[in-house]
């Protein structure tokens, strides 16, 4: 991802003289972090293990 960011920065700077390009985290990554934290809180409230399946299904 960092290589992509540098490449995009270089292209924007060359083509549009954009000096203000900043690397921004992927929105889905930020959303994933927020959801994970909230899920941990919910599981703590319910006194259950975080992301442990209730059923053991054999394959």
Strand segment count: 0
What is the N-to-C order of secondary-structure elements (H for helix, E for strand)? Answer: HH
Rg result: 20 Å
* Beta-strand content: under 5%
The profile of the biggest β sheet is: none
Q: Count of DSSP helices?
A: 2
Protein name: 24061_t:CDS:1
Organism: Cetraspora pellucida
Structure description:
- With 59 residues, the chain is mostly helical.
- The protein has one domain.
- It is built from two helices and no strands.
- It is elongated, with a radius of gyration of 20 Å.
- It starts with a helix and ends in a 14-residue tail after the last helix.
- The model has no long low-confidence stretch (mean pLDDT 71).
Quick recap:
This protein has 59 residues and is mainly alpha-helical.
Task: Supply database-style keywords.
mainly alpha, 2 helices
Sequence-ordered SSE layout with sheet pairings:
Elements: H1 2-16, H2 27-45
């Amino acid at each position: 991802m960092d290589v992509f960011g540098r490449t995009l920065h270089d292209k924007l700077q060359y083509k549009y003289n954009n000096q203000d390009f900043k690397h921004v985290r992927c929105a889905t990554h930020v959303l994933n972090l927020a959801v994970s934290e909230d899920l941990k809180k919910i599981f703590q409230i319910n006194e259950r293990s975080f992301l442990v399946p209730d059923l053991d299904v054999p394959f």
